[in-house]
Structure formats: C-alpha cells, structure tokens
From TrEMBL:
PROSITE patterns: PPR. Pfam families: DYW_deaminase, E_motif, PPR, PPR_1, PPR_2. Residues 673-765 form the DYW domain. Belongs to the PPR family. PCMP-H subfamily. It comes from Lupinus albus (White lupine). Keywords: Repeat. This is Putative tetratricopeptide-like helical domain, DYW domain-containing protein. PPR repeats lie at residues 65-99, 162-192, 195-225, 226-260, 330-364, 432-462, 463-497, 529-563.
Length: 765
DNA sequence: GTAGGGTTAG
C-alpha cells in the first residue's frame, strides 16, 4: 500500500493529481502524518495551488514538526500571502518548535523591514549568522530596505564571499540609485568570479536608469546569456518607450536560437500593445509567432494578451480571454477588461464590471474615472472621484488627479477644481511634470490664466507639454504677445516647438488681432501642417483680408480640409461676404453634411444681408438632410455644484427662481436705458438696432446672467460648436458695467473676459 | 535552498 502511494506522489503533474493523493491518504488515515503533510505542501508550492487548500492540508497535521512548518512557510512565502508566512512562524515559536537555520533565509526574504531586523537579532542569538544562506538573506534585506551601508558592512566583514554575495551588494546599490558604487564593485570582481547573474544585474541597472546604450554594451559583452538576460534588455527597451527596439531584439533572440519564456512574451506583447495603432502588421506577425509555439500561457501572458486584443480593437477576443480565465482572474485582469471597455467608450459595460469586481484597487478606480473623463462624461468622472475618496478602499494617486483635473477643466468649474487641488495634500499626492501640466490645463480652462501661469512658473522642470498647454491657454484668453514671448523662452530652455506649439501661437495671434506677428511665425515654420494653414485663414479672415485668405488657400501644397473652409465660412459671416460664404459652405456640405454649425452660419450670412428667402432655403435643406441641430446649452458652477441649462427647458430645480431673477434684471435694464427683447438685451442705439438677434443663444446666456447677478462669479460655459453672438456680447458688456464686476464667458475654446463694459478679447469685432 | 526579468490606469 505504501509503495502504491509513493508511486502516485511521484507522478503528480497538476492540482487534480494532488487532490487524488490527498483523498487516498484520508482513506488510509495517513493525512495526519507529518511526512505526508510536508510532501503534499511541497507539491502545493511547486504547483502554486490555491492557498486555502494548502492551509487545509497543514491543519490536518496533528503535531506539526519543524519540517511541516518549513513547508507551509515556504508555500506562503512564494504565494501572494507573505504576511501569513511570518504569522505562522510566530505560531511555531509559540509551540516551542526550534526553527533551524534553513528557515531564516525564506522568512527574511518575505518579511518586510521591521520583521527583517527582528530576524537579524534572532540569528545573532541563535548563532546562525555564519550560515551562507542566512547572512546572504540579511544582506539582501538591508540592500532592499536600506540602509544600504549596513549591507555593505556585512559584505566587507565576510572573508569567504561567494558570487551570490557580490551579486546582492551590486543589486543593492542599483536599487538605491548608486550607479558609481555598483559599477566599482562589479570591476572589483575578477573576470572569472562573475556569473551570468552578475552581468544581468548590470544590464538591469543601466536599463532601469534609462541608460540603454551602456545597458546594451554590457549585454553585448556578456560571456553567456540566459533567458533572464534577454528579458532584462527587452524590458529596458519596453520601459523606455521603445517598442520597436523591443521587437527588433526579440526577433534577434529568436533568430539566434533562444527559447522565450512567459516573461519574454509578457514584455513583447505589452510592447505590441503600444504599437497597435502605429504598426498593426508587425503586431500580427508577433501574434502568429505566439500561436505557432503554442505554449502554456500564465495569467501574466493572458492579461497582456487581453490588453493587446483590446488595443487593436478586438474587444470580443479580449472578452473571450477574460471569460476563459474563469475564477483565476485577479484585479489586474479585471482592470484590463474595464479599461478596454472604457477606452472603447462602452461605459455602461465598464461600470457594470467595475461594480461586480471582487476587489477594487487604485487602478480600477482610475480606469473608470478616466473612462468617464475621456468620453465627455466629466460630471460622472467627478462623482466617481468623490465616491473613491469616501469609499476608503483605495487612495487616489497622481493618475487619478490627472483625470479629475481634466474633467474640471472641461467643465470650467473653478470651485470644484480648487477643491480637487485641496485633496492633493490630504492624500499626500506628489505631482510629476504631467500632473502639473494637467493642473495648468485645468486652471486655464477654468478661466484663471493667472493661476495657470503661477503653476507653470513654480514648476522645477518643464517639458514640451507644459509650454504647449500654457501657450494654448494664453491663446484662448487672447494674450497673443505673451504667447509669443513664451515661445522664445521655450527655445532658450532648449525645447523645440512642435506643430501643437505653432497651432497655439497662431491661434493666440489670431484672437489678439496680431496679424503681422502671426505671419512672421507662420513663415518661420519649416513644414507647415494643414492645421497651420487653417489658423492663417482664420487670422486673415478675422482681419478682413479675405482675398489674401483665398490666395493662401490656392497656394496650399496639400488638399484643404474642413478646418480651412470652416475658417473661411466664419470669416465670411463676420464680414458679411455672401458669395465667399456660399463657396465655403458648398465645400463643407459635401465633406460634413451633418454638421449643423455650417448651416447656421450660412443662414446667418443670408439673414444679415436681408435675404430671408435664402434663409428659409437653408433651413429647408437642413430638414431634408435630417440634420440635427445641436441643442443650445450652458452651465455655471455655483458653490462647487454644476448647473446645466438647456434652452427652453424649465425643469431644473432652480429654474423658477432663475426666471424670476431674469425678469428682475429686465426691469433693472430697462430702467438703465436698454432694450430687452426675447430675454436678450441690447443698447437702444440706432446702428446696433440693425443687428439681427439670434434668440437661442441669448436666452440661455440670459439664464446665466441671472445666476451671475445672484452673486455667483464664475465661468459661463457655452456648448460646443456654438458661438456667442454679437447681441450676447453687448448684453454681457452691459451687465459687467451695471454690476461693476468681472464676467468670464467661455465659448468652446475661447475666453471672453468682461469688466466695466469692455471685453478683453477682440474676437469678432 | 542565496543573486537577475513580467501584466492593468494618464
């Protein structure tokens, strides 16, 4: 019978075999015996079986001896539950079982700093400190948690070091960023003393400090390479954002007859994920290779593969991998699936998974919050962020804040933005450059270009995005000259402007009426993009130089796109040039027949020329083409809350109050000598009476005025594709004078700052 | 039984 059981135990390949052996042992009442318990636990460790199964086996031992404890502690130290290992060790001490030296390296490795130091004192007392494995583990503990000089002290005191000791101290110095000392010790070693791990440690060290050239030099000079060495170099390229180089080295690896392992595939697949848009054929090639080798993928590989399928747009394939993972899914798998749906814009499915997942972490919240933020659901993003803070199961980090800042910026909600900034300190969040960049974006989109500038100035280092964000902000606020100055400062700092910078600068010039400066900048662009031409058409058009604009269009080396004709149509509208407007509109109706904005502009051109029949014709075409007119809306922030208003909609809670207030203002305005008509206001001056009043815009703005005068000062946000029309401008100017206050209105991406009856943006006028 | 490599969020 015994030999039968021993035979079974030799043939264990998977968890199923293990369970069968366990059943046999229970059948023969042998499962209490330490010998068999230890054997089963060793199999658990080898197979990475479920932790409750291992503890079940352990508990069946009646009087566990030191070997059984070693097995279970080893098991826990290799699975995710390392704190269990330490608590079992305490359990062992409680039962007066004397640990032997071989247990300490395992314990120290998984203990964390405080326990590690405690174990150090244990081994000193027990006299185990001269054991090679023990002292190596202690050194490794100090190398990992610091202070690294204690590791060095142990190292210096050794008179019979082996290669593992050298390797630990070198990797310790790399961990603490001490490249110099790591390299010094490497060179202290003799050529024959170094092994493949020593070399790999150097490759990893240089790769992690982004010194890929030196990393590659060590890699090329290695006497021999293991699969780990290849993986170290591959991940070096991958982590530095060089996916092409990763794939190139991977091909080199295969061609020189090396067998990739799970880690290799994870690295390569995740590099493919970032190439999914740029080079789909290369990605297909790698996927075919993976199919050909047909090997056992672990969860890491499957999760990476899930992410890749999602990023190349194959959500079904991604979902299949997710479902096939069954109960083996961890939070990373869930997060990958959630962000896949969120990226694709399928927010309800993403949210459903988010609600269902068993354990959420910071990445789960971030995936969902950024999903909302990037799909225009700014309010939902902020709502979920508030839930995250009160849930307390995970803390927000910089990535969370980037999404939240962006959401606040899109809303133009300054109070909310200031509140999110205050959560930074409460949660001890440090920002990196990209965090500060999103803060610049938020402040500038919330109308506070001053705060945006302060953040920019306070930054220790700035990158291209920092400059571009502030330049675009200045452009939107009409500060053209400051934008140009910032561009020269940028060049002084050694950062070359890119196409985004030039779009920002040209927009700034266009909005500030800086024609000459804008033209100079345009001429300095080496290879102008079609969008740069669009900015120039806009600039010339606003300045009334429509003939020059037409000339520029004809001289373009590329095919004009909708932005070009859009700018032309806009200019024709401002300067009431019917024939040019018709030309531009005809082009636009072909390219984007369902954009309602173009029809509205053309109809406005006809209206300003008194050609009412043509106005009707435009609206008829719109109806025939079934063009949906964008509903006019606006929102304002009041005490951290967002109030959205849709034209004609009287349902919001406060709408009765608002309309009452509106009526009051009308009275106030009439007394001050203004004409109030259909909820809009204008001065009763002859030349302005000719202006056609576009009711929709005026009404919703009027609602905002009501809020403004009811003691709320913040940015008014006007819906996308809508423009503030002339009468609105007049109204706001007048109210700013009447109320003696500053009013900021955001119209798509432009800001209009009104104070004392003047507007600082000379757009349209 | 010591040392080296890996998945998800902006």
């Amino acid at each position: 019978m015994m030999s039968h059981l021993i035979n079974i135990s030799r043939k264990i390949r998977n968890v199923h075999d293990l369970r069968q052996l366990h059943a046999q042992l229970v059948h023969h009442s042998l499962h209490h015996h330490n010998h068999w318990v230890a054997l089963l636990l060793n199999h658990c460790t080898r197979l990475v079986a479920a932790s409750n199964y291992a503890s079940h086996i352990f508990e069946s031992a009646t009087y566990p001896n030191v070997y059984v404890f070693i097995c279970i502690i080893k098991y826990y130290s290799q699975s995710q539950t390392q704190s269990e290992a330490v608590s079992l060790f305490k359990h062992m001490q409680y039962n007066d079982i004397k640990p032997d030296a071989s247990l300490y390296p395992i314990l120290i490795k998984c203990a964390g700093k405080a326990c590690g130091v405690l174990f150090h004192s244990h081994v000193l007392k027990l006299g185990y400190v001269h054991d090679h494995y023990v002292r190596n583990a202690i050194m490794g503990m100090y190398a990992k948690y610091g202070p690294v000089h204690l590791a060095r002290k142990l190292f210096d005191e050794m008179h019979d070091r082996n290669v593992a000791d050298w390797n630990v101290i070198i990797s310790g110095y790399w961990k603490w960023g001490n490249e110099e000392e790591a390299s010094r010790i490497f060179h202290m070693m003799g050529e024959s003393q170094r092994n493949v791990i020593t070399w790999t440690t150097m490759v990893t060290g240089y790769a992690k400090s982004r010194n890929l050239k030196t990393a590659r030099m060590y890699f090329d000079n290695m006497p021999q390479r293991s699969v780990v060495s290849w993986n170290a170099m591959l991940s070096g390229y991958a982590q530095s954002g060089e996916p092409q180089a990763t794939i190139r080295l991977f091909n080199h690896m295969l061609n020189s007859g090396n067998e990739p392992d799970q880690t290799t595939w994870v690295t390569v697949i995740s590099s493919c994920s970032s190439l999914a848009d740029d080079d789909p054929s290369l990605v297909d090639l790698v996927l075919r290779k993976l199919e050909k080798v047909n090997f056992q993928s672990n969860y890491f590989v499957k999760t990476a593969l899930l992410d890749l399928q999602a990023k190349r747009g194959n959500l079904e394939a991604a979902r299949m991998i997710f479902d096939q993972l069954g109960v083996g899914k961890n939070s990373v798998t869930w997060n990958a699936m959630i962000s896949a749906y969120a990226r694709a814009g399928d927010l309800s499915v993403a949210r459903d998974l988010f609600n269902k997942m068993p354990e959420r972490n910071t990445v789960s919240w971030n995936s969902m919050i950024s999903g909302y933020a990037q799909n225009g659901e700014s309010l939902m993003a902020i709502k979920l962020f508030k839930e995250m803070i009160s849930s307390k199961d995970s803390k927000p980090n910089e990535v969370t804040m980037v999404s939240v800042f962006s959401a606040c910026g899109h809303l133009g909600a300054l109070d909310l933005g200031n509140w999110t900034v205050s959560t930074l300190n409460e949660n001890n969040i440090k920002l990196s450059i990209s965090g500060y960049n999103s803060l610049i974006f938020m402040y500038s989109r919330c109308g506070s270009i001053e705060d945006a500038t302060i953040i920019f100035q306070e930054m220790e280092t700035r990158d291209l995005v920092s400059y571009n964000t502030l330049i675009s902000g200045l452009a939107a606020h009409g500060h053209g000259m400051e934008g140009i100055k910032l561009m020269s400062k940028m060049k002084e700092d050694g950062i070359e402007p890119d196409r985004i910078t030039y779009i920002g600068i040209l927009t700034a010039c266009s909005h500030a009426g800086l024609l000459e400066e804008g033209q100079k900048v345009f001429q300095s662009i080496k290879v102008p993009d079609v969008d740069h031409y669009a900015c120039m058409i806009d600039m010339l058009g606003r300045a009334g130089k429509l003939e020059e604009a037409m000339k520029l269009i004809r001289s373009m080396p590329m095919e004009p796109h909708e932005g070009i004709y859009g700018s032309l149509l806009n200019a024709a509208c401002i300067h009431k040039r019917v024939e040019l407007g018709e030309l531009a509109a005809a082009k636009l109706f072909k390219v984007e027949p369902h954009n309602s904005g173009n029809y509205v502009l053309l109809s406005n051109i006809y209206a300003s020329a008194g050609r009412w029949k043509d106005v009707d014709k435009v609206w008829d075409t719109m109806r025939k083409q079934e063009v949906q007119k964008t509903t006019a809306w606006s929102w304002v922030e009041h005490k951290g809350e967002i109030h959205k208003f849709i034209v004609g909609d009287r349902s919001p809670k406060r709408s009765d109050d608002i309309y009452k207030l509106l009526a009051n203002i009308k009275v106030k305005l009439r007394r001050a000598g203004y004409v109030v008509d259909k909820s809009c206001v204008r001065r009763d001056v002859e030349e302005e009476e000719k202006e056609e009043i576009v009711g929709v815009h005026s009404e919703k703005l009027a609602i905002c005025f009501a809020l403004l005068v009811s003691d709320i000062g913040s940015v008014i946000r006007v819906g996308k594709n809508l423009r503030i029309c002339l009468d609105c401008h007049t109204s706001i100017k007048m109210i700013s004078k009447l109320e003696g206050r500053q009013i900021i209105v955001r119209d798509n991406n432009r800001f209009h700052c009104f104070s004392d009856g003047l507007c600082s943006c000379n757009d349209y006028w």
